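Q: I'm building a small set of examples for a reading group on sequence design. Run inverse folding on the following structure and report the sequence directly after it, with nothing in between.
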């Protein structure tokens, strides 16, 4: 069986103009579709500047209902172009309850559901705990209507079975493993991460980007899946977002690597039929010792 899918990534810079960013993203979705993309992934929180660099209550005004106007607009575009759209948005769930959420629109325009970011950072320049509540931590499958808000997700789209995780999630092998075990063929990571412009040591900057790329490529290897990581680019406040979006195959080999400085719309063909080859060549799933993993549920294994 020949099962190939064309993945489109949109790496772009953002401004304070929310509607301008939205129109820009939609234009780049059209560009990706014109290049043959079937599944198109946008970066994290693409409609605005990365507002989590400060703790400001006014930024809650950027949040919206999901599903809502943005997913309706993107659903219409997905139907028009016959593509799947993966869109990271700031969700208002209820008064005082907000999530960092990614919505998935299928190629017929249907809203398939959403994934709410599970791991929330709190670091200088990334004050996300001020804004976001973690996703609910019970496993779900997007094939079930009742699971729309459950923890780790897979989405059975027209072209592939995909998993979506968000930025800080990318540092956690548990999240990639669970999503892969649920049947994901491709893991998508919408992301917003960059260099602190006050950091002048080039070695530290180099190491940070290298660690970010390496950990995600390792998820591809450990789980026998393709990994697609889509970052933003450009200077915002004291962050120089490093771009460097990439696509890796199930052995971790880079199939595509974007610029650190330029906006990018790229389309890459992935052969999903090869997943069986990778998983039988290196049968990590077969050799898992599930009976021995209970300690992983501990916060820390204290020494005696």
């Amino acid at each position: 069986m020949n099962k190939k899918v064309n993945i489109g990534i949109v790496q772009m810079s953002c401004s304070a103009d929310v509607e301008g960013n939205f129109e820009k993203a939609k234009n780049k979705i059209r560009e990706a579709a014109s290049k043959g993309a079937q599944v198109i992934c946008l970066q994290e929180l693409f409609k605005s500047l990365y507002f989590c660099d400060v703790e400001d209550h006014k930024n809650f005004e950027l949040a919206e209902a999901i599903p809502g106007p943005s997913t309706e607009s993107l659903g219409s575009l997905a139907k028009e172009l016959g593509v799947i759209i993966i869109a990271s948005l700031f969700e208002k769930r209820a008064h005082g309850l907000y999530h960092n959420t990614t919505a998935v629109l299928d190629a017929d325009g249907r809203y398939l559901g959403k994934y709410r970011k599970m791991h929330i950072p709190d670091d200088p320049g990334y004050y996300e705990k001020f804004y976001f509540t973690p996703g609910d931590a019970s496993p779900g499958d997007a094939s079930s209507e009742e699971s729309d808000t459950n923890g780790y997700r897979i989405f059975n789209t027209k072209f592939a079975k995909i998993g979506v995780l968000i930025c800080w999630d990318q540092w956690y092998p548990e999240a990639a493993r669970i999503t892969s075990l649920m049947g994901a063929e491709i893991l998508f990571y919408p992301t917003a991460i960059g260099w602190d412009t006050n950091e002048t040591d080039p070695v530290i900057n180099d190491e940070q980007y290298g660690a970010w790329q390496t950990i995600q490529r390792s998820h591809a290897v450990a789980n026998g899946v393709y990994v697609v990581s889509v970052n933003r680019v450009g200077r915002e406040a004291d962050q120089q977002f490093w771009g460097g979006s990439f696509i890796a195959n199930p052995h971790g080999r880079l199939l595509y690597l974007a610029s650190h400085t330029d906006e990018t719309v790229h389309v890459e063909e992935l052969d999903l039929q090869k997943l069986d080859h990778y998983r039988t060549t290196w049968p990590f799933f077969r050799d898992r010792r599930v009976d021995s993993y209970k300690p992983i549920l501990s916060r820390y294994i204290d020494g005696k």
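The helical segments are 18-34, 69-81, 173-181, 202-223, 275-281.
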